């Protein structure tokens, strides 16, 4: 799991499954997945199996502001340990290009440093 994502212990126990699902959900404007793009800020999984995702977008005018949260909810519900999912969108802190992972930078042709 990325160091810049706040994650609780229950979610950390299934982090490989979470990352696998999040890496398959692409921001259509940037053509990079939400995980490597750095749109995910927080993942919490409670004792009842509810997973809360806190995320942002690259821009307030993002065309995918409605579709990405739905895609995240649909995808994460397929994980056995997750019963329900909610997505909270935040604009603070604002997304910055520095949130893109090394892999994401290489994929986009940006210097990996």
Walk me through what this model shows.
The structure is a single chain. This protein has a single domain (4-106), classed as Fe-S cluster assembly (FSCA) (GMP Synthetase, Chain A, domain 3, 2-Layer Sandwich), CATH 3.30.300.130. 29% of the residues lie in helices and 21% in strands. It contains 5 helices and 6 strands; from the N terminus they run βααββαββαβα. The protein has helices spanning 9-12, 15-22, 34-37, 67-76, 102-108, and strands at residues 6-7, 26-27, 32-33, 40-45, 50-55, 84-89. It is globular and about 40 Å long. It starts with 5 loop residues before the first strand and ends in a 5-residue tail after the last helix. The mean pLDDT is 94. It holds the Pfam family FeS_assembly_P. This is MIP18 family-like domain-containing protein.
């Amino acid at each position: 799991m990325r160091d810049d994502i706040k994650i609780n212990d229950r979610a950390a126990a299934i982090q490989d499954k979470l990352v696998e699902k999040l890496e398959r959900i692409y921001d259509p404007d940037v053509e990079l997945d939400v995980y490597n793009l750095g749109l995910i800020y927080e993942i919490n999984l409670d004792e009842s199996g509810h997973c809360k995702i806190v995320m942002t977008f690259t821009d307030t005018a993002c065309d995918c502001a409605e579709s990405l949260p739905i895609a995240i909810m649909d995808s994460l519900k397929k994980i056995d340990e997750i019963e329900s999912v909610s997505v909270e969108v935040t604009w603070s802190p604002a997304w910055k290009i520095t949130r893109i992972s090394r892999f994401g930078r290489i994929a986009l042709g940006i210097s990996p440093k």
